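Q: What would this chain look like folded?
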Amino acid sequence: MDNFKAFGNSLSSIGSQITPFASRTFQYTKEQLGQAEDKTQLPPDYIDLEKRVDALKQVHQKMLAVTSQYSHEPYDYPANIKESFSDLGRTVSEKVQLLSAATTPAEAQAALTAPPTAKPQPKTFSHAIARASLASSQLLHQQHTGAGEDPLATALEKYALASERLGEARLAQDAQIQSRYLAGWNTTLNTNLMFATRARKNVEKARLTLDSVKSRAKGNTWKIGAGNPREDHHTTDELSPEAQEEIEKAEDEFVTQTEEAVGVMKNVLDTPEPLRNLAELVAAQLEYHKKAAEILSELAPVIEGLQVEQEANYRKSRESAS
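A: My prediction, written as structure tokens:
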């Protein structure tokens, strides 16, 4: 007998948990079918906050869909090239040092294919240019038979070293963007805006509960296919004290949830974090482009000097030939 009572109490407990959900579902269904009366309206200011929060969420989704590429190292790596394991084994700087110590073509080739000393080199556009430039420089050096060095080979080697520095600067930029921008915006999207979404859902649950309580207290019923609820419902003055108390309790809960959601949404909208994170993004990009300009400003006159010297030697050789 005691077991039967315990089982009955368990069913009652489950029923008490299901009933609010069932009531909300019932009320929602009536509203969708156009058979609900006196749907509680949310304050205009609250609706405006919802629209602003939705806009902010879309902004984060759109921006992150693009800027998340900064967390993907080879986002600018050419898809049409294939580099071997040995190509990615050492940095260009390391290879240049090994090449400078080489005294024979065999030693030079060994320097280019030296086994790796660390993890494979980065796959960025600038790193790929650096590796291609150094390999091209060595091809020219190996076939050069004249006096001195091949000016194009020399220029390509210097371009290779500069390009590697550009690639390292890009990786430094990406690391800053990941920690100072992407992390912040992902937190706002997946945490702060999620809290706002949850608070709004609680408001909607409280509203549906309130309207279902009102409908039940007034005796509104519905049937599938019916046009409107029955009109023979009780007025507020005819409600029993128990029904009136239940409505007031639901109203209090609705007001509480609405006020809480307003606070959460205002906090999400007013926080300076997104703009601060965006400023960090711009700062990281600016720092990278300044560094890139510095590297190329150092390289350009060197390349130009080699080109001017080659032009002069070319003219002299033409004049001597004539």
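The mean pLDDT is 81.
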